[in-house]
Design a protein that fits this description.
single chain; alpha+beta; DNA Binding (I), subunit A; two-stranded antiparallel sheet; 2 helices; 36% helix; globular; binds zinc ion
């Protein structure tokens, strides 16, 4: 139970760090809403949760990118603000 809460907090912290690094917008099209955090190399293909493997994409770009890939588990898409 405890580690689930910490993991959630950790994700939030990582997302905020990405926002500070890249700005709060899609790195493909510059959209500022419906943002998700995307794994550049999917976890299913050996990618990691390191910041260097994460990018901010809007939902549309994320779906475009993911179109040729098998669906990822829901944990990879973080709720957008
Ligand atoms: Zn986009």
């Amino acid at each position: 139970m405890a580690h689930r809460t910490m993991n959630c907090r950790d994700k939030k912290r990582r997302r905020n760090r990405l926002y500070r690094m890249y700005g709060k917008r899609c790195q493909q099209c510059g959209k500022t809403n419906s943002l998700t955090v995307d794994h550049i190399i999917p976890l299913s293909q050996g990618g990691t949760n390191a910041l260097s493997n994460l990018q901010i994409l809007c939902r549309a770009c994320n779906q475009k990118k993911g179109a040729s890939l098998p669906p990822m588990d829901g944990g990879d898409l973080w709720a957008a603000y």
